[in-house]
């Protein structure tokens, strides 16, 4: 099999572990010469981890990689590049204030016999590559003057300067217009003719048929299968992506929603990310906002909470117009947000639990500008107990708590404000199963008390576990509304990927 | 067993600066019999009081995590020179009060502008206050035209040279300010918000804290403390001129650095700043008593600042 000249790259039984998580478990993958191989999977299926192994950012814990029949041990990104593997991330790796040609040769500039950069040689090579790609960009244009599509082409050109044989593209079309996508596909075809193999990561199922030769589906860190694109139906691919997971026990047994609407968004738009978003949450209801990474969910949450501004639309909380507000006023009106990135936006890691809990509700322990530390201690004790935060004491620095306990501190912080509407952005990301269920139970209890909950989640199982209603978001707008207790993972992913449009 | 060793280490870490302060005192008393006398100790405190006042202001700026306040030396000169014409001998009490209010107003204005540029325009604090340092200095030169104003009313002279129960008034002012600043930072909502903004500005925003207002207030306080220091300073000299205070900002930064106030914000307290200011003053005093050449004094001061920060890092690492 090693001398099968068709195969360019072969990964066998790759395993990669992170503390508490099996990111890749026995993954196998083969890449043929001159093929576009699509890598498909849900958020967290292990696509990125696998790519980071190929590009030398991660070392494998077990398994082996063969390149042209040779066993290789990819040590670091530079080594990966020397082996002819290049990767284009969603966030480009270009220096904004340097020119196109400087970026293309960054770190491997050709030098003359005196050790100076051989500018003429560099420009000639760059020109050749640009001609081959049929790209019309000035070599001297600064990157920060280019549009996204052109930046991407510079990334492709940069990969060609090191004679890449394998080009990994992570969601290359996520931010492109349809015309730009067609241009990109033409470029990919040219690369193929040149003998470059492409690993193409995408959520957009339609593109697979357009550009892919073969497709490998990953699910929960396992390879589910590799298929020829023209021999498999998209519905079948969706099924493979989602699979039959061990069905989690549905925690939300009673829908506690009442008719009264606590929170409503009407026609919200924020260029270029969000268009005409309409949604509402009832008192006592748990609503999930599903969608793929990049669908605009976190952006929407930041907009309604007043972190970011938006162009059009109306946001109403308990009958009060809080359109284009500040977080301060949103909180005052009764809103809370458990942010996606707890450590960056939710907590002061260097402060004790006690102080973190009162962050958003200092008003409650203040009289005439003076804090009551006694009250603060009492409240901290109450929430530590109520939320079952395991810690040596209320003065423990938050930095040293586990992810689950940190999240509980953030939750305590919002309970302390006695809010009526709470947004949970990816509430259980990076949290172990035990703490996860505790958080679901707490959400349940909150809803029972009449709090409206909007939960952003990329975890379909989580949505099915806890949500009364599900909004599926795609490309910056609500694509579909589903009943949380009746829907299935397949149905959600179908709308999230745009396989089915309503 | 394990817990006792750790807590001992924690205690050392917590009181490391006081321990160092005591060690310096001990060494100086051994080296010079003039050091541990009542007169000298009072002298050290009087010399240190000015630095303490400014270091406490600097503490507010630094806790916010938006960078140091380099403008305070120029603010000392500007505000004291603005007030000085109203403080001269023969001025009515109303005029004196007006002069002091004017100085305070200018001080608050400068600090607020610093804060506004840092928050609304999102410029680095280092750059803003460096610019303001030059601007304020320029303005005071324009106002003074090389003039020297001297001979103040007795009340003002008392602020610089008077004594209360045989303790110099500047020391009393510094002590009061220390206590007030500690209370504000620990027990008021504003003080807590300063710590939150400094610990994590993003989290502060997500928690509905008015970040911009806190930063502006913090820099205004820094500037206002410099104003107070300026009045006390010209009172002691009984003279105001445009050139004063050139090194003050850097000395205050040195004091807070030694005092364990984090340059990233969110960690530290006014007592640390006081200890830092006292350590610097003690060293200067001790080296003067021992007739150490001024070149070496500067060298030692610089080394102590770096050493203190290194020690801090090391202690934080080992206690966790």
Please trace the helix and strand order of chain B, writing H or E for each element: HHHHHHEHEEHHHHEHHH
Q: In terms of per-residue confidence, which ranges of chain B show pLDDT below 50 for 5 or more consecutive residues?
A: none
State the CATH superfamily name of the largest domain in chain A. Answer: P-loop containing nucleotide triphosphate hydrolases
| Count of separate structural domains of chain A | 3
Helix content of chain B: over 70%
CATH architectural type of the largest domain in chain A:
3-Layer(aba) Sandwich
- Mean pLDDT level of chain B: 91
* Distance linking N and C termini of chain A: 47 Å
- Count every beta strand of chain B, where a strand is a DSSP E run of 2 or more residues: 4
Q: Outline of this structure?
A:
The complex is a heterodimer of chains A (502) and B (320). With 502 residues, chain A is of the alpha/beta class.
Please specify the SSE layout and strand pairing:
The complex is a heterodimer of chains A (502) and B (320).
Chain A: E1 7-18, E2 21-32, E3 36-40, H1 47-54, E4 62-67, E5 70-72, H2 77-82, E6 85-88, H3 100-104, H4 119-133, H5 148-161, E7 166-170, H6 178-193, E8 197-201, H7 205-211, E9 214-219, E10 222-228, H8 234-242, E11 261-270, E12 274-282, E13 286-291, H9 297-305, E14 312-317, E15 320-321, H10 327-333, E16 335-338, H11 342-346, H12 353-358, E17 366-367, E18 370-371, H13 373-386, H14 403-416, E19 421-425, H15 433-448, E20 452-456, H16 460-466, E21 469-474, E22 477-483, H17 489-496
Parallel strand pairs in A: 3-8, 3-9, 6-7, 7-8, 13-20, 13-21, 16-19, 19-20
Antiparallel strand pairs in A: 1-2, 1-4, 4-5, 9-10, 11-12, 11-14, 14-15, 17-18, 21-22
Chain B: H1 2-14, H2 16-31, H3 38-63, H4 72-83, H5 93-119, H6 125-144, E1 149-150, H7 154-161, E2 163-164, E3 167-168, H8 169-187, H9 189-199, H10 201-206, H11 211-237, E4 239-240, H12 248-258, H13 270-289, H14 294-319
Antiparallel strand pairs in B: 1-4, 2-3
